[in-house]
Write a structure and sequence with these properties.
Blueprint: H1 5-13, E1 19-24, H2 31-44, E2 50-55, H3 60-65, E3 73-78, E4 81-87, H4 93-105
Parallel strand pairs: 1-2
Antiparallel strand pairs: 1-3, 3-4
Length: 106
């Protein structure tokens, strides 16, 4: 689901569920990670974790407020707090799964 700055506080910081926020250029390389994460979210975390994507090109204000320096990057939130983050073109679905599972078990 797409996320905009106006919705960040309610959807991420105010969420009852843990949240993964992907920051990237939608449709740009490495676009394969977008599809992998979308599949992961639907198949493994429905009802357990909310997943959002921020289009870095369309919402620079939110990207800047989150201090994102590179895309793709993933921010993991639990109880309204930043739990951890991952970034880089090397990321694969397993990296996101491992960090999400770590967040859920903490």
């Amino acid at each position: 689901k797409a996320l905009r700055k106006a919705d960040f506080e309610a959807e991420v910081l105010g969420s009852n569920l843990p949240v993964v926020v992907e920051n990237g250029e939608i449709g740009e390389p490495p676009a394969d990670i977008e599809a992998q994460v979308e599949t992961l979210a639907k198949e493994e975390y429905t009802g357990k974790v909310n997943f959002y994507i921020v289009n870095a090109a369309a919402d620079r204000v939110l990207i800047d407020s989150l201090n994102i320096k590179g895309v793709p990057s993933f921010l993991f939130y639990k109880n309204g707090q930043l739990f951890d983050k991952l970034s880089g073109n090397h990321l694969k679905k397993d990296h996101i799964r491992d960090k999400t599972d770590e967040m859920l078990s903490s």
